[in-house]
Write a structure and sequence with these properties.
homodimer, Arc Repressor Mutant, subunit A, 3 strands, about 10% strand, DNA-binding
Chain lengths: ~160, ~160
DNA sequence: TCCTGTTACGTGTATATACACGTGTGTATA
DNA sequence: TATACACACGTGTATATACACGTAACAGGA
């Protein structure tokens, strides 16, 4: 007889599992979005910009949960392609990121390909499971911030 | 009155959420493993090698759910550090990957740091939630393979 | 034996990711 | 006002990721 209602210890590495699934899922989305000349990371950036007139780099990075310097690099190809403009911001320090018409057009073109990738994933995993996964991922991110932000073992003053 | 037991449509992008959380969680693990001079990806590779005497590159890549060429690149730093050896395999084509004593030593050193990173995550999210996340991630990966492998839109012959 | 297809790799290229570090710029304080 | 600090960025460096492409080696059949 097993002891009831005892939570089994967590086995293995959460980060490893996350990275594993993320690799495969990213490949799936990328293979679809490639038809529009985009990667899923780029599609995500454009999607965020579609909903916002203008943002500073730091604000953009915070919303994407992405390192600021990573965002700078990731915007490079989008700027080169003429989809995004990075101009002077309110401050002399700040810079404003904005979506250009061509960028919106590419996003519109890519959208049905993203939709198909997502539909195939929904079918493969089951809608219930995907919904549960979304909830768990969102919740985990929130709790992660609440508990671990500015508690990292950088230096004990 | 809301219609009962109707699964709400899935909102947003699964891949985006996965990548978001993976970024943050990876940073967390990396900050701990840095004390042992490792990244979580490298720790994962060493962990797999600890349980296996010898493997071909392709077999290793398959077990890691990692692209073969990605694995080749990721093994570079580990070889340079003298933690892993890549020698001739059974075949003249194949190559055997093996963990060296120094590699095992580093892994042993890193293990408590990984443990702490995992414990902090467990505390931040709650053990139940982490267990649920593991189950969902594992299950999703399996179902992903069953449904989407060799069904990718590469080319319609 | 020679040809053909498959298998197991490596490399070039491009993007994704983030830390350490340095540079201006704004702000508040002595 | 001079100074110190905080803020917003960019860059150098290193790793992570994978597709396209090419090469050498094996396995079968003509």
């Amino acid at each position: 007889m097993n002891p009831p209602s005892v939570t089994p210890p967590v086995r293995g590495c959460t980060c490893f599992r996350l990275r594993q699934l993320t690799r495969r899922v990213t490949q799936h989305y990328d293979s679809h979005l490639a038809r529009a000349g985009l990667r899923v990371t780029q599609y995500g950036l454009l999607s965020m910009l579609v909903r916002t007139d203008s943002m500073s780099l730091s604000e953009f990075a915070a919303r994407m949960e992405m390192d600021r310097t990573t965002l700078t690099r990731n915007l490079g190809p989008l700027e080169t392609a003429g989809w995004v403009s990075v101009t002077a911001g309110k401050d002399a320090r700040s810079r404003a990121v904005r979506l250009i018409a061509a960028g919106r057009a590419v996003w519109e073109t890519a959208k049905p390909h993203w939709r198909q990738a997502q539909d195939e994933l929904n079918a493969a995993l089951g809608t219930d499971r995907v919904a549960a996964l979304h909830g768990l991922l969102d919740d985990s991110l929130t709790r992660f911030h609440l508990a671990l932000d500015s508690t990292e073992p950088s230096a004990a003053p």
